[in-house]
Amino acid sequence: MDHFLYRDGHLYAEDVSVAEIAATVGTPFYVYSTATLERHFRLFDEALDGMDHLVCYAMKAASNQAILKTLAALGAGMDVVSGGEYARAKAAGVPGERIVFSGVGKTRDEIHAALSGGIRQFNVESEPEMAVINEVALELGVVAPITVRVNPDVDAKTHAKIATGKSENKFGIPIARAREVYAHAATLPGLKVIGIDVHIGSQLTQLEPFRLAYDKVAELTEQLRADGHEISRLDLGGGLGIPYERSNDAPPLPTEYGALVKETLGHLGCEIEIEPGRLIAGNAGLMISKTIYVKSGEDRDFLIVDGAMNDLIRPAMYEAHHDIVPVVEPAPGVEKTSYDVVGPVCETGDTFAKERIMAPVNAGDLVAFRSAGAYGAVMASEYNTRPLIPEVLVNGDQFAVIRRRPTFDEMINRDTIPEWL
Ligand code: LLP
User: Fold this and answer.
1) Closest atom, ligand 1, to C-alpha of 164
2) Nearest CA to ligand 1 atom 19
3) Which residue in the list 1, 226, 331, 346 is annotated as catalytic?
4) Which of 10, 75, 247, 355 sits at 20 to 30 Å (Cα–Cα) from 111?
5) HEC states along the chain?
6) Span from the CA of 197 to the centroid of ligand 1 (angstroms)
7) 250 C-alpha to center of ligand 1: Å?
8) 185 near 164, Cβ under 8 Å?
9) Ligand 1 centre and the CA of 417: distance in Å?
10) What is the position in ligand 1's atom list of the atom closest to the CA of 374?
11) pTM more than 0.90
12) Are the C-beta atoms of residues 111 and 135 closer than 8 Å to each other?
């Protein structure tokens, strides 16, 4: 459920008319709903009720500080994967002890910054990285809390570009080598091993892959404890999918996921961390775009909108589906038509949807790309020297621009011309 509904024939974000925001900030833009963000966070938090737990929002999904602050106020931790994300989480007021550092290539500088500023734990992805964390901790005279990310060799049954838990993927250390790696970690004085980390992929639409992975983690917990390690925290990653197509079967709910966590891992008495990103932000955001032209091709009609692949890259990159709905609700029973919905960027890949059946749209009409809150704004680029589009946050009947559109001057003045030119 989200808070983007038609009222009297007009699309609203909570109690604010989307057309009114468009009139104020111009198009295209992203708009997020506070109530939806909060609801999704609480669903996860409540799903783990009865277990000691922390929901660490994977801020790579949507990292505007206003979103981070909204979630942090409810008690969320943050999962960060770069020095930039760490700095952003801190700037939003998230305390270090609620920040988990994931990511396959943490640099010495990033490790230094996190150890200096405070960190809940590093999820270590390789032995060379473990060595560097140990060295930096010793330099700073601190002890770094770590888990080791294990790769359980489980098929997440999702798009190949976002599956991470197979042995052929770059992530984690093979679970078969885990005991050896933990034994080595225990000899490093700058590290304190506190648990195990696993993340098998994103947009999972079934529980079974999670079950396979978590069963393996349960078994490993017992083996490592028998080896003398203190395993008190399990970080289970993110990955629960969202319904992108309203017509399709819905993926499992956070309550069902929480029940699975309890069933597979509850008996171990560990503190549980999860790192959901998409499920919290995805359906909490829309991209709003204006139709520039409707162009009749040889055998199809093109809806040319002012948003493009640089603003929302998911369709081009993952063949992702986003529902596209008009901001003015079509009259009931209106005859639908078929469009290829495209942006103005000079690439055929700049296509949001092919042969999409929808109510007729005219030039100037606003359309909303649904489920665009996660991996939308954060993956945008300035390709074709198109400015990054604004982000707007709605809260009840209020809205605020939480990132403004840069001017062309701001964009082009970042270039510096060498003196020989
Ligand atoms: N934890 C780790 C270590 C991750 O790598 C990810 C996502 C998450 C948590 C959050 O997963 P989620 O709950 O959002 O599924 N750009 C792609 C998705 C990439 C996901 C990368 N890692 C997309 O637009 O579909």
Assistant:
1) 5
2) 162
3) 346
4) 75
5) CCCEEEECCEEEECCEEHHHHHHHHCCCEEEEEHHHHHHHHHHHHHHCCCCCEEEEEEHHHCCCHHHHHHHHCCCCEEEECCHHHHHHHHHCCCCHHHEEECCCCCCHHHHHHHHHHCCCEEEECCHHHHHHHHHHHHHHCCCEEEEEEEECCCCCCCCHHHECCCCCCCCCEEHHHHHHHHHHHCCCCCEEEEEEECCCECCECCCHHHHHHHHHHHHHHHHHHHCCCCCCEEECCCCECCCCCCCCCCCCCHHHHHHHHHHHHHHHCCEEEECCCHHHHHHHEEEEEEEEEEEECCCCEEEEECCCCCCCCHHHHHCCCCCEEECECCCCCCCCEEEEEECCCCCCCCEEEEEEEECCCCCCCEEEECCCCCCCHHHCCCHHHCCCCCEEEEECCEEEEEECCCCHHHHHCCCCCCCCC
6) 15
7) 19
8) no
9) 38
10) 24
11) yes
12) no
pLDDT digits (tens, 9 = 90+) for 274-289: 999 999 999 999 999 9
Measured in Å, residue 367 CA sits from the centre of ligand 1 at 27
**Ligand 1-lining residues (CB < 6 angstroms):** 58, 61, 79, 102, 162, 199, 202-203, 237-239, 275-279, 314, 318, 375
Contacts of 168 (CB under 8 A, 6+ apart): none
Mutate which of 278, 318, 321 to test ligand 1's pocket (most atoms within 8 Å of Cβ)? Answer: 278
Catalytic (active site) residue 346? yes
